[in-house]
Amino acid sequence: MAAASGGGGRAPLGPANRQALQPAAVNKPPPGPLGFTQCHTGWMDKQEAAFKGWLNAVLVPAAAEGGESDEGAAAQLHALASRRLVARLRGLLWQLYSQDAELISVMLKVEQRINSGQMRMRDEEATMKNVKEGARARAVLASYHPLWLRLGMEVVCGSAVAGDDAPAAPAHLAAFVREQFFKDPQLAKQHPASSKAYWAALARLVLKRCLLLVALLDRVAAAPALPAAAPLLFRRDSKLKASAQASRCWPGSPVLAELVQPRLVGEGDVGRTLGRLGYRLGYEQDPRRELDFAVSNMAADLRDGLRLCKLAELLTGACHPRFFDSTRFPSDRRPVRLANLQLALDQFARAGLPPQQAGQQRQQQGGSTAAAAGCTTAAADLVDGDRQQTLCLLWRLILHFQLPQLINLSAVRAEVELVRAKAAQAAPVAGSAAAAGGAGSAAAAAAPLAPQEEVAAGSPHVAALLEWCAAVASLYGLPVRGFGACFADGSVFCLLVHHYLGHAYVALKDVYRPAAGGEGGEEAPAAAAGWAGPASTVSGQLEGARRNFGMVQGVVQSLGGIPPIVSAEDFAECGHDEKGCILFTAFLCQRLLEISKEERAAMVIQRRWRNRQQDKPGAPGWALRFAAARRRGVAAVVRLQAVWRGRAVRRQYQQQRQAAICIQAAYRGRRQRRAFFHHMVVPRMLQAGLAAKRRLEGSRYEGRLARAATRVQVLRRGTVQRRAFLRQRSAAVAIQAAVRRWQQRSRFVQQRAAAVAVQAHFRGGAARRQLARQRAAAVCLQAAWRRWHARRRFLRLRASAVAIQAAWRARQARALLQQHRAAQRVQAAWRGYATRKRRQQQQAAAVAIQAAWRGHAAQRAFQRRRCAAVAIQAAVRRWRQRARFLRQRAAAVAVQAGWRGYAVRHLLRRTRAAVAIQSAARGFLARRRLARAAAAAATIQAAVRRWRERRRAAAVAAVRRQMREMAALMREYQRRTAAALHIQAAYRGHVGRKEYRRLLAAQLEAQRRQAAREAAALAVIAPWAETFRDRAWFLRARRAALLLQAWWRLRYARRQAAAVALQAAARRLLARQRLLRSRRAALTVQTAWRGANVRATHPRRKQLADIRLRLAAAAADAAAAPHRSLGARTHAHLDALLASKHPASAVAALTGLALCTEAVPACCDIVVVGGGLPVLLGVVRAPCRSKEAAEALRAALACLANICRAGPHADAVFGAGNFLPSLGDHLQQQRDKEEVFMSVVALWQRLVCSPAPGAAARAQSLARQPDVLSKLEGVARLLALKLSADQKYLTKLEQQKGSDTSARQATKALLSTSRQLRALRGVLAATGASAEGASGGGGGNDTPLLLGKNTLVRAVLREQQ
User: Fold this and answer.
1) Which residues contact 278 (CB under 8 A, 6 or more apart)?
2) Do residues 545 and 568 touch, judged by C-beta distance below 8 A?
3) What's the whole-number average pLDDT of the chain?
4) Which pLDDT belongs to residue 67?
5) Is the N-terminal amide bond of 330 cis, ω within 30° of 0?
6) Alpha-carbon gap, residue 689 to 1098, rounded angstroms
7) Fewer CB within 10 Å: N-end or C-end of the chain?
8) Which GO molecular function, any one, fits this protein according to its record (predicted)?
9) What is the dihedral of CA 710, 712, 714, 719, to 10 degrees?
10) How far apart are alpha carbons 1272 and 1263 in whole angstroms?
11) Angstrom distances, CA of residue 302 to CA of 375, 1037, 1049, 1076, 1118
């Protein structure tokens, strides 16, 4: 007998081994056959148990049933299927890690950003040492399924958590995360322990690992090649269910935000930052996937339809991968269950499940005589729990979907042939007894199928499965004729396992088999359906069957992937279920053939490895094998060269032959067409012309008059139509120009983006397409030449008839000219009256439109002014509160000032946003009340609208695609047309020049001949001179008429084409506008709905509601008190300033104006228009000798700086008389008062240093005023000298260790002087003045101030700088 580790087949049993399988027969036969006739519903219970085991195996695979705490898929590490699943998932992860070019490129960009320091952890050392942070990070990682987490960290870290076959306990996995994932032994060796470099490198490494782990698991979870038995990415009890984006189904935060976001420095939205690098995560775990699909009670569990839909997705997953996502959940109502079940049945029908015909439903058991009444499975039957219909449907699914997935017909038939071949080889080796047994086995294998097993012949997969079982069992002398009594004791299953796995799994001495009776090994008819065993009792037979099934179940558990469908109890009680036996045998066949295939592959690899070892240099016989292989290679190369050379010669001959055939065909066709034209077309044309001439001459005078009147009417109508057409054409040209302008602008944006790719592709293929273009151009040229030549001949033949018609029509036209002129005068009068009436109506309509528009514009302007007044009032109130708060909390000045300044600038936008939010909220409340009243209708409408939007989106995409294709075709057509025109022009020029030279020579020759004949012909021609002149005039008139007709036809054709193109463009534009309007409306509705949904579910909705209430209250207060607006306050302060006799004493008014102009730019216009600018300039020109005057000067300077934000106002201030010298004087006088000095310098900066338009011109104008510029430079020199003196004094104090108070005051004075000098130098730099001239030669450099040795000095410098 072959060893257990050998090939897939086994030799037949010898006499010694067969004796262990054939115990002695008992004297008393067992009871009658235990069929299903003893129990009316027993077959249903057994079928339900078998199908329940199959459903649990398909819906809840064994590899995913393990608890999430013990790695789920690897919980049964002893099972071969679990190890195969783990290996497959690990291979899939490694493939993504090493071969996914997109993932590698993205992670390289992320790694470069991390290494450069643009993305780093906050306080690396503290973060990595913090135990609490580490526990939080491990908790986030623990949200993944343990199997996925283990495999992902093995790929990322490059080391195994445990052995390949050893289970990884939760403690081992946690230790690996703590010691290997968040630490690295190699870094500890490279850097000193607990050094900053070590912690920084470790933080970068951990950040890279975290991002790589999240990206890798996200991609593998969405991979199409993911096995069905793979577990979900996240644990069922985890709060995190998405990788990056917040899920609509799960309210928790995504993994990326929880793991990386809180630990980064300077990153707002880490997902958006990484998205710009191409790092995108999209996995979101559907809660429906987390349902428990296990079937405990088939009558109740299949009613909701979810499990049946899941089964449909698994069985027909190749056609519809995401079919289960379209189910309805929860399915607690009957309509929902019916919808889910109908969805599953439709899916099965689309996948190829044929409808069950009446009378075709077989009996559920061979002994039962009751046929199935209902043949067609309906969703209502499944919801009602009809067992018979449910079992019938499941068996149909097994036959049409499950068995084809398990059984490969070609592979099974090849395996059967292999088994029979091995049996034939082993037959001569056996002895005489074995020969007798072999004959009996062959007879048993060739025996016909039992009548009760004819169901197997109805399906090719079942028939192939039965043939395989019979072939294997025949090796052991056991006949198998069907899935009935032959499988009752389990011996066939044991022999199948022994044949493929050997004694290591099943020993032949332990296999129980019933005794055989009769000659040739054939079983007795009485014992064929009963039990036989080593004992004479039925209990002994049952014990033997239980032992067989126990061994089979042990093998099934070790192999994995085979559901527990059959057992000894099912076979003992009322007989076994044939369909469950077929299903179990199919699963067993799949697993055994897979193992056999792997063993054969291992043998092939071993054989290849041995051959490779023999082919190495130095092995025995290596030189001879190498020489033979080289000779075979040379012979193959010679044969390939000969074949290639022969192919090249044959190809060249074929090309030449085809070219010759084309040339001959073209020449023969041209000759035949020319002969046909001369012999058939020309005579017919001449005959038609003569017949028309005779009919014209023989017509009567009345007929001619009628035709003339008809022609006059036609001409008149043509004139009217032409004038109407001209008016329409002028309008169409205007519309066409606008449409083309819009098209060209939109095309330019698209063409500029695609220009680089199109040019590269075009230049790359230009050389290859050159020959094709020349050939096409030549063909077009030949066609045009032939068409022109034929048309010229036709025109010459038709000239006589056309000339007669043109002459007659010209005569009739001259006769009716007077009538036409009279009609024109009448029409002109009528058009004048109609035009004047239409103009009066248009003027009245224009007046009405203008009145309506002006009213609308006035209302809109009033609304804008009102909103601006409200904003100004709110800003003034906020400023007062801000001043009071600044006095109380000086420490928060910087933060609050920045925030409130931002709020002031965006107050108007926020007010509008609040109004929009309120309107959307009211609309949402109304829609919600309506939705509560008609929920079902709203659902249907939403579905219909989504369908319409998808259809509109598809239509838009199709239109855009067609437009792009049309543009490409137009460009290609224009290019080809230009090339053809160029070639045609060149060819026509060549032909024309050649024809011109020939005609010129002929003309000269004719002139010489004519000169010789003129004298002789003069006497003959003289009597006919008058006739000749008339004929010449007639010929000229005919040529002119022909030219006019051709021009008019060409122009009419062009106008028709232009009108068609214009209409198409206009329709396309109108359709696009309608589509855009529909999309904007849909987007508006969607935006309002989403905003309402977000506001309803926002965690801070109460705070937002309070903010809206406060905004509404503020708006109401502003509407109730218009005098408190900024505009009103600006007018009040301006009136107070103008009413003051001494403007310098109106400090409060000036301060108020400064605040108003700083808050709102419109207040600056109020001050300028109200006449406040001269007063402000007067305050600046006035001398500053008191404290009140200094405060007034400071406020006036602030007002002027705010007013200068506008270009025209800045020019007016800059050009005021004696203003710039006054500013220079103030700089000299107020240099000891830093606040006033800085106010003056700020005004200078606003005039000459701002980036606003006109600042550069003002700076150049200031540079041309030497008196003012000299004052500024003088002040700068004084400040530089003072700065140098202050530095020397401070150095002296530090050296002498003077008092702390003096040092502090000196330091503050030094900093103040430095700031003043720096600001003034900026103004001088804008005018182009040299910095050396303003430095004064003493300590005027712009180098930063160095910290002194004194502690107080250093503190003051830090505080001020």
Assistant:
1) 102, 105, 106, 109
2) yes
3) 75
4) 44
5) yes
6) 91
7) C
8) calmodulin binding
9) -170
10) 11
11) 19, 95, 77, 47, 66
Q: Where do we find the tokens 């437009």? A: 963
Handedness of CA 678, 679, 684, 687 (dihedral sign): positive
CA 1046 to each of CA 981, 984, 1049, 1303: distance values in angstroms, whole numbers, following the listed order: 21, 21, 5, 104
How far apart are alpha carbons 894 and 668 in whole angstroms?
97
d(CA 850, CA 843): 10
Calpha distance 1308→1356 (Å, rounded):
7
Maximum Cα interatomic distance, the chain, rounded to a whole number of Å: 152
DSSP string, 331-363: --SHHHHHHHHHHHHHHHHHTT-PPPPTT-PPP
Tokens coding 631: 């000779």
Question: What is the DSSP-derived secondary structure letter of residue 522?
Answer: P
Going from the C-alpha of 694 to that of each of 336, 697, 799, the distances in angstroms are 88, 5, 16
Structure tokens at 615: 């082919």
Alpha carbons 1349 and 348: distance in angstroms, whole number: 88
Residue whose C-alpha is closest to residue 441's, from 479, 485, 468: 479
pLDDT at position 14: 36
Residue given tokens 């079940």 in the structure block: 341
pLDDT of residue 571: 65
Q: Is 393 exposed, middle or buried (0-12, 13-18, 19+ CB in 10 A)?
A: buried
**Contact present, 1335 and 1277 (Cβ < 8 Å):** yes
CA atoms within 13 A on the CB side of 99: 7
Rg of the chain taking only CA atoms, in angstroms: 51
Of the candidates 565, 554, 593, 361, the residue with the CA atom closest to the CA atom of residue 465: 593
Q: In the block, which residue shows the tokens 């410098």?
A: 1357
State the Cα–Cα distance between residues 1157 and 1147, nearest whole angstrom.
15
DSSP code string of 139-195: HHHTTB-HHHHHHHHHHHHSS-SS-SSS---HHHHHHHIIIIIS--HHHHHHS-TT-
Backbone angles phi, psi at 323, to 5 degrees: -70, -35
Task: Give backbone dihedrals phi and psi of 570, rounded to 5 degrees, phi first.
Answer: -65, -35
Q: Name, in order, each residue with C-beta under 8 angstroms of 47's C-beta and a sequence gap of 6 or more.
A: 364, 391, 395, 577, 579, 580
Q: Which residues of the chain have pLDDT under 50?
A: 1-40, 63-78, 246-253, 318, 358-375, 429-457, 516-536, 1331-1334, 1336-1347, 1360
720-729 long-range Cβ contacts below 8 angstroms, 24+ apart: 725/1055, 729/1055, 729/1059
Domains of the chain: 15-25+407-611 (1.10.418.10), 76-290 (no CATH), 294-358+374-403 (1.10.418.10), 1162-1360 (no CATH)
Looking at residue 138, what is its pLDDT?
82
Tell me which residue has tokens 């062959």: 442
How many residues does the structure list for the chain?
A: 1361
| Distances in whole angstroms, Cα of residue 920 to Cα of each of 1090, 1091, 1096 | 10, 8, 12
> Residue 812, CB half-sphere, CA atoms under 13 Å: how many?
19
Q: Give CA separation, 169 vs 65, 77, 185, in Å.
A: 16, 12, 23
Secondary structure (3-state) at 41 = coil
Residue 779's pLDDT is 85
Local structure of 320: helix, strand or coil: coil
Task: Name the nearest CA neighbour of 109 among 273, 254, 221.
Answer: 273
φ and ψ at 965, to 5 degrees? -65, -40
Question: Using N-to-C axis directions, what is the helix angle for 817-888 and 1126-1139, rounded to 10°?
Answer: 80
Our measurement of the distance from residue 827's CA atom to the centroid of its chain's CA atoms, rounded to an integer in Å, reads 64
Buried/exposed 222-261: b ≥16 CB within 10 Å, e otherwise: eeeeeeebbbbbbbeebebbbbbeebeebeebbbbbbbbe
